[in-house]
Each structure stands twice: as C-alpha cells, then as structure tokens.
Prior knowledge:
By secondary structure, the protein is an alpha+beta fold. It has helices spanning about 5-20, 25, 30-40, 60-65, 90-100, and strands at about 45-50, 55-60, 105, 115-120, 125-135, 140-150.
Amino acid sequence: MAKNESDTQVGTHDRLIHMLNSPSIMATSADEYLRKLLDQIPLVGLFVVAIEDGTILYANKTAHAILGYPFLGELIGMHLDDLVPPELREKHHHHRASFAANPSERPMAPGRLDLEAVRKDGTRIPVLIALAPDRMGDTNVAVASLAERQ
C-alpha cells in the first residue's frame, strides 16, 4: 500500500521532533543550534538588519559566499548601504525609511529584474531579495532573504 502525502508529512514531522529532542541537540543551546541551522541553508542568504540605521546584525554563511566575503561574521556590523550600488544608496535610504514606516513582508523591487548587490571586490551581481519585519529585543529589524538571480 502506497503512503499518502499526509502520512509522509506526519512521518517527517515525527522524525524532526525526535531529532530536536535528541541528547546531542538538547546539549546545544537553542540559539547556537538555530544559528548553525541557518548557516546550513544552501542558495539563500539570510540577513537581519536594524531598520533604523541599516546595520547588519546577522548574515548567514550563504550570504557571505554570495557577496564574496570569505570569513563568516565579516558582514556583521557593516552598513547595508555598502552592499548597494553607490548611485542607488540615497534612494535606498528612502526605501528603508518607507519600510520602517510601513513594515510588511514583501519582495524588494517586485517585477524588476535589475536589482543588484555589490560584492566585496566591487563587482555587481543580479539578486532577488525579500523582506519581513521583526523585532530583536527592542530593535526593529528586517529579515532579508537574498538569492543570486541566474
């Protein structure tokens, strides 16, 4: 008898719960485990950015790789505008202020295919970015996903 999709989802859920309750996971702090998990996500870079001042508070391993930063943690503390093409930085500042005033989950520049990010070496790459508002302690943040557009 073939398993249906519901049975597969329940089985996957049970395995995930079992894995999360395993002694090796329980010995790891939740923050440490979550950071490790986020760093393992392939193809999608993740950022947490302070909305008010544009400081990068977190960037996963994939974000570092996409943007040409070889050392994990190198992006943390940088200003988001360092990753925006110079001629668009002033406009980006206004977009960030608009997001702060009306935070909502959304893609950046929907329908446009010319969105670019500046890599560490100064080259530009085409990207897709989506934003979601959140709070980290008393700081309003944007959680951003970043993918290189092929």
